[in-house]
Amino acid sequence: MTDSPAARAAKLLHLRRRKLRKGEPVPLPLTMAAMFNLPGNPAGHSQYGRFDNPTWDAVEELLSHLEDAPTVAFPSGMGAISAVLFSQLKSGDRVLLPSDGYYTTRVLAERFLKPLGVSIHLRATGAFLDGGFAGYRLVFVETPANPTLEICDIAAVSAAAHSAGAIVVADNTTMTPFGQRPLDLGADIVVAADTKAPNGHSDVLFGHVASRNAEVIAAVKEWRKLAGAIPGPFEAWLVHRGLETLELRFDRMCSSADTIAQRLKGHPRIKALRFPGLADDPAHNLARAQMDRFGFLIVLTLESETAADNFIGGCELIQPATSFGGVHTSAERRARWGDAVAPGFVRLSIGCEPVEELWTALEAALGTA
After folding, report:
1. Given 243, 262, 292, which residue is the final one in a domain?
2. What are the tens digits of pLDDT across the range 175-205?
3. Do residues 21 and 170 share a domain?
4. Is the domain of 232 the same as that of 257?
5. Which of 117, 145, 175, 286 could be a cystine partner for 125, CB 3.0 to 4.6 Å?
6. 262 and 355 co-located in one domain
7. 191 three-class SS
8. What is the distance between the alpha carbons of residues 141 and 273, in angstroms, rounded to a whole number?
9. Are 186 and 252 in the same domain?
10. Judging by beta carbons within 10 Å of its beta carbon (0-12, 13-18, 19+), is residue 279 exposed, middle or buried?
């Protein structure tokens, strides 16, 4: 896709208009149906609620527009990841996962894929190219990784993995298609949790798989239909509505994160700080090359678990919560979930609050951490 992010955002808002007949509603109707009127030959029509739904179709159209690739919707980000792993891997295959990315992907692989004969290997995101990819069936990257914000070179990983005969899956949850486009950089498959910024209001779980490989999309769709890992129509309707404001919210969140990260730099209470937009961040040059924006996540490390908890709980404009990407600025101490990070490590998700008011609240909370 050669469109700019602004052009993609503008066209997104008018995709439905192209199909509207006179007198039809401009907003997307919600279709709640397990059964469809189906006399005679069922081919070419909605048949059953586990197979398809007009509301899914509409949200997949928006996601496909943003990804410039066919897209399949799922009831969560992990539903999307599961569909890819179980539809693409078989006994005897080797898969490479990030050791410092979202932990649930590793737990799923160890708990359910390994007993089926899939060999699981881990590698740090920042060193993902080290060691090559010989013998792997599937290489899974998450960049920036959650929660560390480490980055790997998607184009270089894709080229090397393809040379070794592997397919590349990129988890783009932290960036959305407005911040980074892994398919354009050579990845074969994108997975994402639309629970985060795409929906943006912290009120629904959702995910999607996108690929320009027709065989991959067919396998993922078949997995969804047979496994029953289907999104609810109401959840799809909510995500459709959230996507219409994604570009606006994402721009505000990323711009505010740029401002706040610069101000956090050098703060005496902060022992370590990671944000790809900082000129001295170890991944800054790579981030500039492969990302359209630097994102809305900032990670900072305070001196102790107590200091981190005091900062999060003492800020009037931080919502203490897991997950990220909503309109509210939120934060959590990730060590409580078992991530291999310091006790005072905080993942801060910048929301849509006015940036000066947000900074004032953050600065005050740091003073009492």
Report:
1. 243
2. 999 999 999 999 999 999 999 999 999 999 9
3. yes
4. no
5. 145
6. yes
7. strand
8. 22
9. no
10. exposed
Q: Which of these three, 192, 226, 243, is where a domain ends?
A: 243
- Tell me which amino acid residue 16 is: R
Number of folded domains that form the chain: 2
For residue 257, the enclosing domain spans 246-367
Instruction: Report pTM.
Output: 0.96
| pLDDT tens for each residue of 295-351 | 999 999 999 999 999 999 999 999 999 999 999 999 999 988 888 899 999 999 999
Hey, which residues does 97 pair with through a beta bridge? 122
Degrees to nearest 5, angle at CA 44 with 41 and 47: 75
Single-letter code of the amino acid located at 191: V
Q: Are 293 and 178 in contact (CB under 8 A)?
A: yes
- Is the separation of the CB atoms in 198 and 80 below 8 Å? no
**Cβ(160)–Cβ(132) below 8 Å:** yes
User: Coil, strand or helix: which one is 75?
Assistant: coil
Do 109 and 151 sit in the same domain of this protein? yes
Contact 65, 92 (CB under 8 A): no
> What's at 172, amino acid-wise?
N
CATH number at residue 339: 3.90.1150.10
196 and 204 Cβ atoms separated by less than 8 Å? no
